[in-house]
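User: structure tokens for this one?
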Amino acid sequence: MADDSGHLDGQPARTVVFALYDKVTLQDVAAPLEIFARANDFGARYRVLLISPTGASVATTAYAKLHVDLSLAEAPQEIDTLIVPGGVPAEFTFTPGEHDIPEEQTPDVVEPALEMVRILAPRSRRIASVCTGAFVLAAVGLLNGRRATTHWAHCHALASRYPQVEVDPDSLFVQDGPFITGAGISAGIDLALALVESDYGPAVARRVARWMVVFLQRPGGQAQFSVWAQSALPVSRGLREILDAIVADPGADHSIAVLAARAAVSERHLVRMFGDQVGMTPARFVEQARLEAAKVMLATGDHSQEAIARRAGFGGPDTMRRTFRRNLGVSPGTYRSRFRTTGVDRSVS
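Assistant:
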């Protein structure tokens, strides 16, 4: 039951604290903030506080500054959820130029961020990170012996630097006990929706997602985007254009002959380019792109399997079913039933 203000009766407000530091990633903060604000519109009770080490505003990676509510010394003693966003050291600057992966530093060298987490984590029932915020949690030992994820471009570094962490390079977010780590940037939306679902149920999360004009919920087990995460990034612009075209419209004709003609190379040379720069054959990349498209449609919509198979480029449900079983070990129907919610464990509350 909700009272006249729209809040759920009998439920105290949940205090959510964002631990901010200079040069945080703006989207890592803004996206979850919007989710919590809209959840309050639909009956949730979140009390959200932005905290910095000194209480001063913090710079972000996207021009704007963020004003904060409290200093670390003023932080509450009891915190429901502590959120650590990604970012870079304050002195770091990006080098202009064309690159697919910015050579950015991670925030595990930002001592004020580490100190905030050391102090606030013991006060918190649940701790979440967005993007490279996972490096801060790992640096203070909170993820030792646990599964975690981060932005796909930094998964290898996280695993190498912190071998006691079991890094999942594909998932949008990973929950291990009271710790929830999210993938890069926009995955903060998925993580925040999962937190709302855990706290207030799927109906509230569904209303928030609909209002935000995002997928109902991409399940945590859904890949960040496996055809990219599992592949070496291409160097040549021509090949990148081909890959983008496949991902943008997986249902189109992407036979080797068509792709080779589009790239103005021989079929043999195209296969060699894929092997050298992507690490798989053209046919395999196309299959993976179609599989990802079908997974999203199954998890977020109510279209029939026949319609999904056609839109994803499989031609028919039998081909899609064989592809799912070969790659995932389950049928499309089973996949849909398993991933109809975010996959967050609601017993951890």
